[in-house]
Every structure is written in structure tokens, then in C-alpha cells.
Amino acid sequence: MILRDSSNVEFEEFLIALTAVGDTTFLESDGERYEFKIPFSRDEIEEALSEYSPKRLSTDPLSSFGSILFNAVFSGQLGRELWTRMAEVERNNRGLRLRIHSNLERAQHLPWELLYDPSRSDFMSLSGRLALVRSRPEGFKETPLTPLPRLRVLVVEADPSGNLSGGEDLELVNRLVQAHPDRAEIDYLTGATPQVLRERLRSQKYDIFHFAGVGEVLPTRRPRGGVPQALRLVGADGLFDRSELGSLLQHANVRLAVLNAPHSDWIARSLARYIPAALGFRESILERTCLSVSTSLYRLLFEGLTLELAVTASRQAVDRALPGTGEWCKLIAYLQQSDGLVLIEPRRDEQDTWAEPSPPQQANREVYKLRKQLEIYQRNLATLGGSSSTPDWDLDPEQTRALAEKIDKLQEKIRYLA
After folding, report:
1. How confident is the model at residue 71 (pLDDT cuts 50, 70, 90)?
2. Which of 140, 159, 184, 339 could pair covalently with 151 via S-S, beta carbons 3.0-4.6 A apart?
3. Are residues 128 and 188 in the same domain?
4. 265 and 156 share one domain
5. For 77-91, 261-275, 300-314, 360-374, which range has the lowest pLDDT when averaged over its residues?
6. Do residues 216 and 102 share a domain?
7. Are residues 72 and 173 in the same domain?
């Protein structure tokens, strides 16, 4: 999908709400209600994410979990509704915003970002046509937000251990701001302590809050499945309560919080009660993941794209930078604005590209789909250290040979159709 600026983006909302009556969980969409069985536990998900290895292939745990979740959600009428909406947005060259709307702690662990469509052989949140976000139903009071002419960004760095690359993250954000002096200004807070951060947010107003550091999982678990997390700042009293942070960000008029830190997804969830949007990461992440997200996210936000487009493109950027790692699915986005969020007035004199271009003509669509599928196969095979002609037979000869054959057949079919 080629977008000149955010005014060209027309999203259609596809909202799926999770509710509960006692121990029974339901999916609700467009006035219809369906009973929903949560297909796996939090421990199963986190084990798959933490142990995910690029040496896995046909038993890829990410696509497996994604397929199970997809089939559990989009079976029957809800699946038919999805196909109808997807076909409609493709005909009209629009986007579909898939919003997972829930306050159920028991379902928070579900990897919605991994929803995997078997018919397209692709993860939905990496699609060039769909943007996947989460939202919460209570707490935040939505109001219309006008895009701003210039953004004020507070970048907070906290490295209690001295082993993080927060300084590199700060420098990266600084370079992006310097490259767009007419679009944003930056305010730094390094070596942040709780008291200094409180004073800054009480006395100043900002549009974006960027945190470079770590989140910490607290030892006490909530009985309904919640995971207590807090940002770790500098000092003996360095743990910063997420509800207090949300209240301070609301007071400072922050529209977007970017928690570029591991173990920060539940913090982002809490912040969504107070501000329009918050991004965090689930579980541990690689430092390169944080840097890749910063590079892609701010470049697109400064160009005036909607947050959901920038998040999708950031996931794609991580997937390209770290193929086979599954790091891209750990970026969790909470968006409370029902009509999306544009932070800054879009440029009118430049053309920008979001995500991967979709086929411009109907005749090219079959080739386009085949090429997308080929990219997935090739990426998976590359993570094994092999190729279609020289696979690594020591890993799993039958599975690797089967994948190599699929690649050859797809390449032949693409050559024929093209």
C-alpha cells in the first residue's frame, strides 16, 4: 500500500471484544457473541517465545501458536466476516484495523500479534493491508485529537546496571529529531531517578514519552493472571509504579508512550488507562530490536503517518533486521483512539511509503501472494543455515527437503505466471 501521507489512509475498524461471565470467556463482534476457549496458557506462550530458535522450521512454534489462535477466533461466522471485510478493503485500496478490545487479565497473555492465517501463509500483523492493535474498555476517556504542528519528545534513560545500550538509543532518537527539526524537539533526562522524573512530568508538557531502559517483573502475581511489572530507574527506590506513571503522563498531556524496554507490555497496558497510546515489549528482547523499532517508528511518525501504520512497519523492520528470531511479535501496541492516532500534521509535499507495496493491478495479485509465501519459506530455510539447493541435512532431512521442494515449485509457478 503506497501512502502519500496520513490523509490518504482510510481504515475500516474490525473490533473483537473479549468479555467474561464467570469462568466463561466470550468473543463479541458486530453485535454477535461467541463462546471462546482460551487455547493455551501463559507459560506455554512465554516458553515458546523465550526458547524460540531460528533452527526450528516445520514445527515453528510461532506459526503453530498463531494458527491455533487464528482458528480458535476466526471459525464460523466471525471468519466469514473477516474474509468479507478483507476483500472489501482490498477492492477499495484501504486498510483494516484489527482491534483486540479487552480488559480480561486471563486473556492478556494471548499472542494476538502472532495471529497466523493458514490460507495466506502469513502473520496478520506483518501484513501490508492490516494493522493490529490492542485497546482497553475502561479508564481512558477518548476525546478528538488534532494533529500537532510540532512534537515535543521527552527521552528518559535509566541504566542502573551500566550494561545497557540506552545511550545508543538516545543518540538514535536524537539523530532522527535533528533530521526533522521542523517536526520535533527533544528533551533529555539521563540517569533518571523516580523523584527527578516526577518533577519533570509535573512541571513540563510533552507529546511523546520515550523510555530507554528495562522493565522488571515483580515477584507477586495477580490471581487472575496479571503480571506486575515496573520500570527500573536509578537509585535504591528505583522501581516506578506503572499507575503513578500513567497519572503523571496524563498530567503532562502525553499522547504516546514508547517503552523501549523488555518486560514492559503490562506497563503499556496500564498506561492505556490514562493516555491515547502506549507501546511496550513482552518478555526479554534483543538490544537491536529496540534500536530497529526506534529507527522505523519515529521516521514514520515524523512524516505524519498514523500510529498503527508506523507500528506495523516497525514490526516488519524488526523481522527484516532479525529474521527467524520472532522478535517482531514482542512489540505490543495499545491504541485507545477509535479513529486511529496521527501525532503530527502530515507533510503535503513529499511522498512516503508505508510497509510493503501491494499489487496495483488485479492481474498481479496471484503472483504477489505467491512471492509473499516464497519469502516466508526462504526466510525460514535461511534460518536453518541452508538454501533450496544446499540444505542442512543434519537438522531434519525430511522437513528441510520438503521445504526446499516447496521453494522450487513456487519459483517455477511464479516464473510461469509472470
Report:
1. very high
2. 184
3. no
4. yes
5. 360-374
6. no
7. no
CATH number at residue 213: 3.40.50.720
* Predicted model pTM: 0.81
Task: For residue range 279-327, list pLDDT tens digits in order.
Answer: 999 989 998 999 999 999 999 999 888 999 999 999 999 998 988 788 9
Cα(15)–Cα(81) distance, rounded to whole angstroms?
11
Q: What is the pLDDT of residues 151-168, one digit of tens each?
A: 999 999 998 877 776 678
Within a domain: 83:
yes
CA-nearest of 333, 329, 281 to 307 is 333
Q: What domain range is 376 assigned to?
A: 362-417
Closest CA to 45 of 112, 103, 126: 112
Kindly state whether residues 387 and 340 are assigned to the same domain: no
- Residue 9: which residues within 8 A CB-CB, separation 6 or more? 3, 95, 305, 306, 309, 340
Query: What are φ and ψ of residue 215, in 5° steps?
Result: -105, 155
Q: Are 1 and 89 in contact (CB under 8 A)?
A: no
State the residue for C-alpha cell 522524573: 197
Whether residue 29 contacts residue 352, with contact meaning beta carbons closer than 8 Å, is answered with no
Q: What is the mean pLDDT of residues 176-182?
A: 89
Same domain for 185 and 97, yes or no, is no
What lies within 8 Å, CB to CB, of 286 at 6+ separation is 322, 325, 327
Q: Assess if residue 319 is contained within a domain.
A: no
Q: Does residue 325 belong to any structural domain of this protein?
A: no
Of 135, 165, 192, the domain-final residue? 135
Max intra-chain CA distance, the chain = 66
Per the structure, the count of domains in the chain is: 3
Does residue 342 sit in the same domain as residue 279? yes
CB atoms within 10 A of CB 128: 19
